[in-house]
């Protein structure tokens, strides 16, 4: 570690603050969390650190502990200690598995979630919608990236199909992940102070895109690693990449296991929920009920059956999760019933 930290350097690890910490503390970003402690990046190098005692207190909300993506203030020492977690600008989280209900922070301070899908056999609007619903409420902006533009004749139709289906304003980019000129369109999401994560199924082209984004710098680092004992540096190497465009790309294993938590709003389907408000019966099951606005929209081709099915699937999953969440909260409170996140609607005909 050098003496003075530069704000310029911190911008390249995604920091957007104005004032450096006082009292001899330094600023760094959490890039990985292990049982044995944290791995931090200070804009220059990666090093290990321990949380200060107050983070280990029993009963502390786990969300208050340092998490991947956090900017933390550290006190020097061997090892250095994390004393403060700076306020988060965004939080990607999920309900943690386990006996007690807990929210687990997957990554903090992520500005853009790049949802990567191939225009080939990987193409699935339903899966894209699922990823988009995961970012709802996080503060991070989702960006849909379609790879393999060079490979598929039907690329234009698929892109158009998606544009018509997703909420207006969702950025969609079709690219060839191997071509730097094509990938350059994504640089707007990776400027100094920006942090992006890349999600998508295996084979979608995440590594290919990452390599192209990194350009020659990544290749240089890659060849160094090849002479290294592989594995040992892998986490460090992958966890936070400083991009030539000035921003950074964070790669955390947690991002690949995102699940719906029961708290999503499904804002993405606001039009369907508005449509259902027009059914004759307030508790319409949208099956064979008379006066069902959803069936009418399906019949008229205004609503696509595929999108309707995906909405139902995500809604059921959300309700299942919400029930689980409620029973966990009740157990935690010792048997007292909780307010239901999504209560049943009254069975009555509308006026
Ligand atoms: N032609 C073409 N091929 C691509 C493109 N993007 C990825 N590929 C190819 O698709 C295959 C899978 O790409 P990867 O980058 O390894 O995919 P990944 O998402 O990192 O996959 P995992 O590591 O399994 O998660 C490779 O053979 C790439 O060369 C693209 O835009 N155009
Ligand atoms: Zn209905």
TrEMBL record:
Keywords: Cytoplasm, GTP-binding, Hydrolase, Metal-binding, Nucleotide-binding, Ribosome biogenesis, RNA-binding, rRNA-binding, Zinc. Its cofactor is Zn(2+). Binds 1 zinc ion per subunit. Residues 323-351 are annotated as: Disordered. It is found in: Cytoplasm. It holds the Pfam family RsgA_GTPase. HAMAP family: GTPase_RsgA. PANTHER family: SMALL RIBOSOMAL SUBUNIT BIOGENESIS GTPASE RSGA. This is Small ribosomal subunit biogenesis GTPase RsgA. The lineage of its organism: Bacteria, Pseudomonadati, Pseudomonadota, Gammaproteobacteria, Lysobacterales. The gene is rsgA.
